[in-house]
Amino acid sequence: MTTPEIVRFGDGHYHRVIYGLGPYIADYEEQVLLACIVRNWCAKCLAHCDDLDEISLLRSRIHADALIEECDFDTLWKDYGVVSVLVLLAPDLLHQIIKGAYKDHLVTWVEKYLLHTHGKTQANIILDDID
User: Fold this and answer.
1) Contact (Cβ atoms closer than 8 angstroms) between residue 84 and residue 73
2) Within 13 Å and on the Cβ side, how many CA atoms surround 106?
3) Domain ranges of the chain
């Protein structure tokens, strides 16, 4: 991520580009697009968007790569709900790992433990002190 790569942009000009990874906050529309899934399609399985209740195989990167290699853009979009021009989605460490493991699991467990051990009044005093 320190060596520039020469890339031709849509305007026909070439520019030096240094790629990097960083945090990105996205709304639903952008999250769906970044996950390479067309809006209103299931992100977990291959059920068609017109019948999301049908039992279907789970999505996989291997299957998506095979589809991208064999099908054109329109077929991927309309028949499989796959956006073929994007291929990478990195996890958001803050929200998916740190917040998930620490806040949603550990803090909730500690709160329940304090309530069980010390009762509501004393647990609230301890929690206020922790905050």
Assistant:
1) yes
2) 7
3) 26-90, 92-131
Tokens of 129: 């002190």
Q: pTM, whole model, 2 decimals?
A: 0.44
DSSP string, 43-94: SSB---TT-TTS--PBP-HHHHHHHHHHS-HHHIIIII-B-TT-------II
Tell me the pLDDT tens digit for each residue of 42-74. Answer: 878 888 888 888 888 888 888 888 988 999 999
Strands of the chain, DSSP E: 5-8, 14-17
Read off the DSSP letter of residue 50: T
The first and second tokens of residue 47, run together, are: 């059920």
- How many Cβ atoms from other residues are within 10 Å of residue 52's Cβ? 12
d(CA 94, CA 30): 18
Give 74-81 contacts, CB < 8 A, sequence gap 24+.
77/38, 79/48, 80/46, 81/37, 81/38, 81/41, 81/42, 81/46, 81/48, 81/49
Q: Are 112 and 104 in contact (CB under 8 A)?
A: no
